[in-house]
Amino acid sequence: MVKESRSKRYEIRVTVKNTNLELMDWLKDNFGGYVGKNRKIIGWKQAYDWVITGGRAIKLLEKIKDFLIIKREQYLIVITYQAAKIEARKDGSPRNCCKEGLEKWQDAFDYLKGQLSLINKKGDYAIKTYN
User: Fold this and answer.
1) Do the domain assignments include residue 121?
2) Quick one: which of 11, 41, 62, 78 has the most CB atoms within 10 Å?
3) Is residue 63 part of a domain?
4) What average pLDDT does the chain have?
5) Residues 125 and 81 in one domain
6) Residue 127's pLDDT band (boundaries 50, 70, 90)?
7) Which DSSP category does 89 fall into?
8) Is the pLDDT of residue 4 over 80?
9) Are 105 and 88 contacting, i.e. CB atoms less than 8 angstroms apart?
10) Domain end marker among 29, 53, 77
11) How many independent structural domains does the chain possess?
């Protein structure tokens, strides 16, 4: 989950980073999204990012959920966030959002984002804090 610029809203985003452009193009062709080229570091292979967001990201995660081992906790938080987001909308439609409904759920959204941040933190502090 990433925060959309200048707002209190979050977006679901799946990113794969790799040096194999053929793999990245395959992901794009099969699941949508886009491929971006990373800044080249001297002495390293060129790296690329494949990114998919929103509903497409959720659909992809649902398809691969049984294979998630390391990222399973993040998946569970993201799915919980998505369910809360849908519940917060009057008709479940992202285009017809009920502002009051989303504001009511903002604390829950912030909490879930905080949990993701803890899980994704690096170092001993993150392990001690999360466990």
Assistant:
1) yes
2) 78
3) no
4) 79
5) yes
6) very low
7) S
8) no
9) yes
10) 53
11) 2
CA atoms within 13 A on the CB side of 71: 14
59 within some domain: no
Q: For residues 81 and 12, is the Cβ–Cβ distance under 8 A?
A: yes
User: Average of pLDDT values for 97-106?
Assistant: 62
Measure the CA–CA gap between 43 and 60, rounded to whole angstroms.
34
Within 13 A of 35's CA, how many CA atoms are on the CB side? 17
**Bridge partner residues of 51 (DSSP):** 15, 34
- Could you tell me whether strands 48-53 and 2-3 are parallel, antiparallel, or unpaired per DSSP bridges? unpaired
Whether 6 maps to a domain, the answer reads yes
| Residue 15: other Cβ atoms inside 10 A | 13
Tell me the residue range of the domain where 22 lies: 1-53
Q: Which pTM value belongs to this model?
A: 0.69
